[in-house]
Amino acid sequence: MTNVRLPLRALVPFAAGSVGMGIWVTVPGIFLLYFLTDVLAVPPQTAGLALLLPNVADIVLHPWVGRISDANLAGRGHRRQLMLVGSVVVLAFVAMFAVPSDLHGTTAAIWVSVALVAGNLLYSCYQVSYLATPADLGIGYHERTRLMGYRNVVITVSVLLAGVAAPVVAGDDPGVGDYTRMALLLGLVMFAAMLVGITGVARLNQAAPGTSAEPGHRGGLLVALRDRQFRALTASYLTVAITMNLVLAAMPYFAEYELGRSALTTVLIAAFMAPAVLTTPLWVLVARRLGKQRSLLAAQAAFVAGSLVLALGAAAGLPLLIAAVAVLGVAFAAMQLMPLSMVPDVIAAAGPTGSASAGSYTGVWTAAEATGGALGPYVYSACLAAGGFVASTAGEHTTQSSGALAAVRYGFTLVPAVLMTIAIVLQRRYTLDKHAHTEAPRAVEVSP
């Protein structure tokens, strides 16, 4: 194993690529369900399906994209061509919110769903190749954590800024046109950041080139699926992804219907993301001391505790609720950093066959992430539907029943607590990290 220290001239542009990824994940994740139910009058059950069904295709598409990415690496020596194709995702991002004015209800849901299918495919072209980069490099256990630490700080900042900027740009009580304007502005930022990220990948490959797979070793999807450690890690991460996307989708509802002020959505997002930004460097240090697995389990347990406090609702008082959301944010930082730096550990442990299959590994991984992105809002929409939540159009103020209000609160709090408990049980099946973190890194500075 080669233990090199990656230069900032490569780390910074690589991490900057996550700005575009953060916008794609955040804006639809937080606002698309609300956009459907409270702007386009789509019933919650239909809205949930409109977000779920397009992502079912990702189960097939992402691993397929991973194989193409591996083939590009073998044939061209890099994965950047596929990343360039993926940058076009900005067009689908704008289309999701540029719904024709005469479409409402089911027809509007179909429009959004089709745009989401196209966006997911394009985004996977960028994301799969981007996340395969740590496994392509000749770096060790701790340097993978450092690399993903830079990336996680940037993506968390972008999630914070996008989550705060989106409602500000859209304005108060926004209509479809306001959302379209918001998508256009953020889409330009997304595209520029993704291009910078491609430059960062090129510099990393130059700074720490990995070892090519030996002749006779073939990569492929089955290599990833047969890896017991990878299956355990992915199963837990899928459950975490469902939980986190549910929480993000539920924030606007919790702010408006539980706390009584839709403007508090921005406060909740900031209270969630700001601690995540600040604590990511600390989690890198914690992982160096305790290991990634133990750090991740501690973060998951903290998330459960914070969710149970939030279940008290508005009666607990806004300061306590914001503090509980901040705990979720601290936990979120670790739940993003640790798993993403553990995937290349798994690939490295698989030897040359794993190295030849890095794209397939990350394809399966991002398929799980995308599935979580779909199932999270769907699970919350199912909670709303079970509680009798009534959809509305922009400008309407519908009075919700006590059952609907209970669904808003407990779907945001108790359901995530249960899901995260399941993630903890699944995560404990991962054993690769038991001794790996005790390896002593030999820092060799690479000149710019």
TrEMBL record:
Give GO BP annotations, semicolon-separated.
Answer: carbohydrate transport
Q: What PROSITE patterns does the database record attribute to this sequence?
A: MFS
Any one Gene Ontology molecular-function term assigned to this protein's record:
symporter activity
Instruction: Give residue ranges for domain Major facilitator superfamily (MFS) profile.
Output: 229-448
Q: Does the keyword Ligase apply?
A: no
Cell location: Cell membrane
| SUPFAM superfamilies referenced in this protein's UniProt entry, alphabetically | MFS general substrate transporter
Q: List UniProt keywords, sorted A-Z.
A: Membrane, Sugar transport, Transmembrane, Transmembrane helix, Transport
Q: How does it sit in the membrane?
A: Multi-pass membrane protein
- Look up keyword Cell division and say if it applies: no
Instruction: Kindly give the InterPro entries that the UniProt entry links to this protein.
Output: MFS_2, MFS_dom, MFS_trans_sf
Q: Quick one: where is this thing mainly located?
A: membrane
Q: Which GO terms describe its cellular component?
A: plasma membrane
The membrane spanning regions, by residue number, are 12-36, 82-99, 111-132, 153-170, 182-202, 235-255, 267-287, 308-335, 407-426
Name it.
Sugar transporter
